[in-house]
Amino acid sequence: MSFSCISEAEDLEKTGFSYTLSLINGKYKMVILYCLMEFEVVRFNEMRKYIKTISYKTLSTMLKELEADKLVHREEYPQIPPKVEYSLTERGKSLIPILDTMCEWGNTNRMT
After folding, report:
1. Is omega for the bond preceding 97 within 30 degrees of 0, making it cis?
2. What is the value of pTM for the model shown?
3. Is the dihedral of CA 51, 54, 57, 62 positive or negative?
4. How do residues 68-92 score in pLDDT, each as one tens digit?
5. How far is CA 29 from CA 20, 66, 74, in A?
6. Which residue from 39, 76, 78, 80 has the highest number of Cβ atoms inside 10 Å of its Cβ?
7. How far apart are CA 74 and CA 103, in angstroms?
């Protein structure tokens, strides 16, 4: 079964597909979302350990963008040393079926 969200006259950049890609596009955004899906609540340094190839600056930038797009929630605790935790919002959780499907596809089609 195939579903197309593009009519013949519609501009590809104005589709739901394009909008979704604009939110999760980037080398690490889907990895961050998947990490939060798996571990639910993650502190910054924990996430940095899970995603070994990401720099601190890139992780910080990606988390800020995901938070601005209301996919990730940032909880800051007023204590010393500072404690900040990240989790998926309800909007972010709505991407879980898409991420799961991508994972299943990758496991099925991966060349080993």
Report:
1. no
2. 0.80
3. negative
4. 999 999 999 988 888 999 999 999 9
5. 12, 8, 15
6. 39
7. 25
